[in-house]
Input
Amino acid sequence: MPHSPAVFQQNPSKKPAQRDPVAVGQRDAAVNRSASHNYFLTDRFECGIALRGTEVKSIREGKAQLKDAYGLINNGEAFLLNAHIGAFSHGNVMNHEETRTRKLLLHKEELRKLTARTKEKGFTLIPTRFYFKNGRVKCELALARGKQDWDKRETERNREADREARAAVARSQRR
Output
């Protein structure tokens, strides 16, 4: 008698376990909210990061912070400095350093563009968010130019005017 493959049927009453939205990639793992306040963000690039295992697990737990982080291009390689990834809760002696310099993984063409643009006066590289894509941690790197105080005030005035306009439209539609 030939051997037939076993067919497993799942119990329809059981729901599949909910996965963490950060790990699945539905929600950002870390966001640099102050970046758009302090800088004019122009071009954005998606890049990988060379991480250790405990760093990935810490990012999944939401222990990453990009507030003071910035990018640097040195000898044709991109690096991420001052990005804080907290220690893994179940880590041991082999846990990672929290603010170590991490290598960013970019294509050569992207590196060439970024090198040329960062040599211009006033431009810098700012990481805007960490997120998961196909199980891997990605970093969104933005080419940024610093804002002056009057730029920040102008941005705030525009934001306030837009908010008031939306509120006025909403009030008129309710009547």
Remarks:
- The beta strands are 30-31, 39-49, 64-65, 70-74, 77-81, 84-85, 102-105, 123-133, 136-146.
- The first helix runs from residue 21 to 24.
